[in-house]
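Hi support team,

I've been running sequence recovery on a batch of backbones for a student project. Most finish fine, but this one hangs at about 90% for roughly twenty minutes before it completes. I'm not sure whether the input is malformed or the queue is just slow. I've pasted the structure tokens below so you can try to reproduce it. Let me know if you need the job ID as well.

Thanks,
M.K.
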């Protein structure tokens, strides 16, 4: 397994052979992704078309069905993955953390019940224990912690604004 969750390891540290990282479908700047991520997450029919000599990039745009694109123009869309993509699907059950099953719903329920979320601390503890497998579980191919932190903050803001609204 790679060092996906080591401190200082960012998506930009994934080796990339020179190519534009702009999604051919919507123009969003993408992040490089390792081949092992595609091999792990593409459905069989899509995997059969994978060019292992190409360099692939993840498109994070929520408005684009392309998940991966290559330096040769090949694309893979959401329907060609085994899992839904957090950035492209706002469904509450979609994982924010693919390794440890933290979904928006689980985070929301915990905050509603306890007033706080243990998601970030729990995932961080698993990372320190070298249990994460982001490169094979997360369509981004890198650590999900930033997604989880963002999700926690969004839910906390949403709940505090709705409780402020109901108090008026």
């Amino acid at each position: 397994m790679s060092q996906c969750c080591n401190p200082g390891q960012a998506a930009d540290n994934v080796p990339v052979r020179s190519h534009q990282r702009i999604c051919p479908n919507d123009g969003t700047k993408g992040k490089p992704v390792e081949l092992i991520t595609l091999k792990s997450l593409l459905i069989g029919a899509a995997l059969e078309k994978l060019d292992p000599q190409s360099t692939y990039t993840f498109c994070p745009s929520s408005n684009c069905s392309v998940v991966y694109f290559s330096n040769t123009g090949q694309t893979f869309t959401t329907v060609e993955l085994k899992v839904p993509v957090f950035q492209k699907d706002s469904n509450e059950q979609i994982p924010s953390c693919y390794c440890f099953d933290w979904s928006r719903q689980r985070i929301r329920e915990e905050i509603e019940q306890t007033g706080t979320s243990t998601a970030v601390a729990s995932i961080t503890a698993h990372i320190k224990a070298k249990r994460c497998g982001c490169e094979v579980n997360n369509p981004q191919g890198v650590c999900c912690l930033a997604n989880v932190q963002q999700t926690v903050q969004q839910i906390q803001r949403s709940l505090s604004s709705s409780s402020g609204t109901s108090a008026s």
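--
Follow-up from support: It reproduced on our side and the slowdown came from queue contention, not your input. The CA atoms of residues 96 and 103 lie 5 Å apart. No action needed from you.
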